[in-house]
Write a sequence for this structure.
């Protein structure tokens, strides 16, 4: 019996010792620093968590390539909520969905490495608690904090109005933050002083002079009002030729542009046939207001610190003069402050002038009085708090389009057919879902142009964003299929480019890039691009290919980039580039009739210079812009289904329709938001 008791004691001591050691090991496992990684929007996000006594005490980011101005709230709030609540079930941040999930997933992976109880961390859900309902009073309410909304708010407050601006997302900016620095405006001084009219451009102008108003392709039988614009354009061209008699295109004839030419490009660029046989075209009065006021609005942008470059100092793409962003149809594109800087600058100006700004506050309903006048709106904050905003003067809708709502785009579509699905990727911020259009329709606002959305051809095949690739001016671009052959006029409108690319295998094409040149001087050869930090990052991230020679570039294309590996041959690339070079030299594209053509590549220089090379970016079309929206007049007043003005309601930017019709020209969106954003803000403040 004593032996049995002794044996039991020994067993207990062994068990106690084992359990004690296990507890000690467990204590070691849940103290220290552990790393985890997850895929973010722009690349991997790596975190290091500090665990103290089994709890997450700190979160430090080791690797992160996300867009700072878009994701700043996510990087500040989510780690704080995880630590304070010891929870992996925290709310995502509006407008930074993918980044939010990536942060949570990275922390989850680090917590797994630490041996923490993941199920317990996920079960501890964080639930936001709404505050008491609130009522705010103001003169003017601006709904939407992108370019149009901020322009409206600043101009309204400059007229003496009290202004509140609400934004659905966690940060201001919307699509204006994501957009390139491309602003189209007729700039006669820039054309005269910094540009030379190329031979190809003169051929285009001569073609306009030869147009016959009876030509059925012009659709003047349906849209006779546009005949006057063609007549104006012909008069402008003839006057220009008379002023420059004796000068030669491509030598000493200055650049040309006019309001009528910009309007004509808006018309022909937006005139489209729908799948049901109907046609859609821009409204002439809106197009005229847009083109005529563009340069004044750009000058205002300069006054508020957006570094607008126009007149004799005009620049685009780092070169003097105006250029051509993809799908613009003419070199009238001006450069200004980048997206990462422009929204903070506009926000700074707005706040300094007295605009009250609320983010994470989503408009849900427009309020109308017994007479039908809009007198405010209802909104909801992300914690569920209900807000009522009463206005003495009215509301400006600037909530953007709905390209981030592919299902809504598909439901209206009469243009893309099977090329579009309710899962098509988008270049847009995730907050652009059509909220403002739906709210306006609920009080009787009319809509127009909802049948057509724009596909951006040169988007990332993986993300749908305008990232992870490199290219130059549209006049310089060379687009090739998987066999290394050109397949389209790269200077064409965006829908033409997208439709052509979507016929290719998996809808993927490739852009050859050998640096930027002076598009006003087609004789200038492109000398290649250095393998700098930005290029290296895209190559190493598996987004593009790069080679110091065509042989090296062809070899690189055997490895996957953006999910494809076309394995171009050196001969394919050389043949295509040399043929394109010959077209630039002749100023005539024998294959696709590219109107403005430049960007001949100096292969001899590049292949003999070890410091430069050529890059190729795989691309695929994704949803980019919705041309349809609420109907407005030239004073940005919203019109109802009976054709009458809805008192107290103005709208500007992508929430509106009628300007671009079936296709928006590249560089016209930023012009649109600032021209009509200013008009809407001024008129809302003054009651016009």
């Amino acid at each position: 019996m004593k032996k049995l008791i002794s044996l039991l004691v020994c067993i207990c001591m062994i068990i106690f010792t084992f359990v004690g050691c296990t507890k000690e090991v467990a204590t070691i496992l849940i103290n220290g620093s552990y790393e985890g990684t997850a895929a973010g929007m722009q690349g991997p996000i790596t975190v290091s968590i500090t665990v103290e006594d089994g709890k997450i005490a700190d979160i430090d980011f080791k690797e992160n390539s996300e867009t700072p101005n878009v994701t700043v709230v996510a990087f500040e709030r989510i780690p704080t909520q995880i630590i304070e609540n010891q929870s992996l079930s925290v709310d995502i941040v509006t407008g930074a969905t993918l980044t939010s999930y990536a942060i949570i997933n990275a922390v989850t992976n680090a917590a797994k490495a630490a041996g923490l109880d993941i199920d317990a961390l996920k079960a501890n859900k964080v639930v936001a608690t709404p505050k008491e309902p609130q009522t705010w009073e103001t003169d003017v309410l601006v709904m939407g904090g992108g370019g149009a909304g901020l322009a409206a708010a600043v101009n309204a407050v400059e007229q003496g109005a009290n202004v509140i601006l609400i934004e659905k997302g966690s940060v201001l900016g919307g699509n204006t933050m994501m957009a390139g620095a491309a602003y189209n405006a007729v700039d006669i001084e820039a054309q005269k002083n910094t540009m030379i009219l190329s031979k190809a451009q003169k051929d285009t102008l001569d073609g306009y002079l030869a147009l016959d108003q009876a030509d059925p392709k012009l659709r003047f039988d349906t849209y006779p009002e546009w005949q006057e614009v063609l007549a104006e354009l012909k008069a402008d061209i003839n006057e220009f030729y008379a002023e420059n008699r004796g000068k030669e295109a491509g030598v000493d004839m200055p650049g040309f542009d006019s309001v009528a030419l910009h309007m004509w490009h808006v018309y022909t660029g937006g005139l489209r046939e729908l799948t049901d046989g109907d046609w859609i075209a821009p409204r002439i009065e809106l197009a005229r207001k847009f083109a005529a006021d563009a340069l004044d609005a750009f000058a205002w942008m300069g006054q508020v610190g957006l570094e607008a470059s126009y007149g004799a100092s005009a620049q685009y793409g780092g070169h003097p003069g105006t250029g051509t962003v993809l799908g613009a149809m003419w070199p009238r594109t001006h450069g200004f402050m980048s997206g990462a800087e422009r929204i903070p600058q506009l926000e700074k100006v707005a706040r300094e002038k007295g605009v009250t700004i609320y983010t994470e506050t989503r408009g849900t309903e427009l309020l109308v009085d017994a007479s039908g006048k809009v007198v405010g709106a209802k909104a909801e904050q992300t914690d569920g708090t209900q807000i009522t905003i009463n206005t003495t003067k009215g509301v400006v809708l600037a909530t953007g389009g709905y390209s981030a709502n592919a299902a809504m785009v598909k439901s209206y579509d009469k243009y893309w057919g099977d090329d579009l699905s309710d899962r098509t990727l988008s270049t847009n911020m995730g907050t652009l879902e059509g909220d403002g259009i739906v709210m306006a329709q609920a009080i009787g606002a009319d809509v127009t142009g909802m049948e057509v959305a724009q596909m951006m051809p040169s988007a990332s095949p993986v993300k749908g964003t305008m990232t992870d690739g490199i290219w130059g001016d549209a006049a310089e671009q060379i687009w090739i299929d998987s066999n290394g052959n050109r397949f389209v006029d790269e200077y064409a409108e965006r829908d033409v480019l997208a439709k052509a690319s979507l016929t290719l295998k998996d809808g993927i094409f490739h852009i050859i890039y050998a640096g930027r040149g002076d598009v006003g001087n087609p004789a200038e050869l492109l000398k290649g691009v250095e393998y700098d930090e930005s290029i290296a990052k895209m190559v190493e991230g598996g987004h593009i290919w790069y080679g110091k020679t065509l042989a090296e570039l062809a070899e690189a294309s055997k490895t996957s980039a953006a999910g494809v590996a076309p394995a171009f041959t050196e001969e394919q690339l050389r043949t295509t580039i040399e043929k394109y070079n010959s077209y630039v030299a002749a100023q005539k594209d024998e294959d696709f009739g590219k109107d403005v053509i430049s960007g001949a590549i100096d292969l001899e220089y590049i292949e003999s210079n070890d410091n430069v090379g050529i890059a190729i970016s795989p691309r695929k079309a994704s949803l980019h812009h919705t041309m349809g929206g609420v109907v407005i007049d030239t004073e940005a007043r919203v019109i109802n289904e009976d054709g009458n003005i809805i008192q107290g309601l103005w709208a500007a930017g992508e929430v509106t329709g009628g300007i671009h019709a079936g296709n928006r020209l590249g560089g016209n969106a930023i012009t649109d938001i600032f021209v009509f954003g200013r008009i809407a803000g001024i008129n809302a403040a003054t009651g016009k």
Q: What stands out?
A: Confidence is low (pLDDT under 50) at residues 1-27. The CA atoms of residues 49 and 59 lie 4 Å apart.
